[in-house]
Amino acid sequence: MRHGCLLFGFVFSMHLLAQDTTYARKVIGFLTSEKCYGRGYLKNGLNHAADYISEELKKQRVTSLFASGYFQPFTLNVNTFPGKVSVKINKRRLQPGVDYIMNPESASLRGKFDLEKKDSITYFSHNKSTPLKITLKRKLTFSVASESATYCGIQLLNKNNFNDLKTAEVNIRSTVVKDFQCKNICGFINGTENNDSLIVFSAHYDHLGGLGKKTFFPGANDNASGVSVLLNLAAHYSKNPPRYKTLFIFFAGEEAGLIGSHFFVESKAVDLKKIKFLLNLDLLGTGDDGIMVVNGAIHEKQFALLNQVNSEQQLVKEIKKRGKAQNSDHYWFSEAGVPCFFIYTLGGVTSYHDVFDIEKTLPLTDYTDVCRLILEFTKRL
Fold first, then answer.
1. pTM for the complete prediction?
2. Pairing state of beta strands 85-89 and 167-172?
3. Of 283, 258, 282, which Cα lies nearest the Cα of 334?
4. What pLDDT digit, counting tens, does each position of 93-145 carry?
5. Are 226 and 284 in contact (CB under 8 A)?
6. Which three-class secondary structure state does DSSP give residue 137?
7. Is 341:299 a contact under the CB 8 Å cutoff?
């Protein structure tokens, strides 16, 4: 009988694993596709992602937070690279995203330039009204800027041991888009016992967009993985109603400076005092070395509960903790007095803010166990 129960438990566990990760890969696959173009500010990529997420919430019978629907619109300014992106160094054409990226605040520049070496990793050209700065990097890590600088900046991967840059031929077009329309996506499932208190799950769905017309940053781990967990949680709670009213928030503008979450907190869309706990989820595609919990050192009672669940069920390898950090969308809630954790997985693939953060190589090592840990922790709250 004991062996029969163990076998049933194993089969049930494997069924959940297949179900969770299969759906996760479907979500991540779409969000990292060319249609979403890095979920940024070119080719309507961010809006394609928003429409997809809202349709998934509708399928899960998640109620929209606002009378007008799931969307909470806001605007931001962003420097984009919509047109030509071309760089030659020492007459050799380089590949954007692979060999180089632009500084996110870079201005437009076109022409041929002689380069002057400043130090072992920095080169300049001062012979134009817009200076050119080239920096050698061990890893290319793109980001987002809200305005344009007065120079053109290029980060060059030093994989070919560049040590003598003589000439550069560049054709870069940057455009600052004012008041770019973004939207947070918000929905909830009512609780069976208490709808006056809230459990909140959040994840940002935006990423870095693209460079020019062909190169984009897929953002599989960051943060299509977290979005997929939220949608999996929504699917779970739609079939297994939670005790507390449960809110799901998908933020835009995270990569641009936590703008969407700041707007949500300032908007008073919900009474923050009614939030019992918030779990912000990002970078959940690995887990080889366990998970990190930001604010774990602050909310010691809840961190102890998380460890207790993990100890009993042997889910993730290790749970590490940090104090406060302004590194994701939990921050503004934490500053407003809302108890919250920011959870991300550790170990595994190292692709981050680059063109190699793709669904195909994202292992989802401990994906299902992290989901189970979150569900059981929330249940015991």
1. 0.94
2. antiparallel
3. 258
4. 999 999 999 999 999 999 999 999 999 899 999 877 899 999 999 999 999 99
5. yes
6. strand
7. yes
Tokens describing residue 27? 């979500």
Nearest to 231 by CA among 55, 39, 18, 1: 55
| Cα–Cα distances in angstroms (integers) from residue 230 to residues 93, 340, 376, in the given order | 42, 16, 15
Q: What fold is seen in the domain 22-78+178-380?
A: Aminopeptidase (3.40.630)
Q: In what order do the strands lie in the sheet with 122-125?
A: 100-102, 152-157, 132-137, 122-125, 116-117
- Amino acid at position 297, single letter: A
Q: In angstroms, rounded to a whole number, what is the distance separating the alpha carbons of residues 309 and 293?
A: 14
Domain range annotation of the chain: 22-78+178-380, 84-172
Pairwise CA distance, residues 354 & 301, whole Å: 37
Tell me the C-alpha distance between 272 and 267, whole Å: 11
Confidence of residue 160 (pLDDT cuts 50, 70, 90): low
Query: Shortest CA distance to 342 belongs to which of 376, 381, 302, 369?
Result: 302
At 318, give phi and psi (nearest 5°): -160, 145
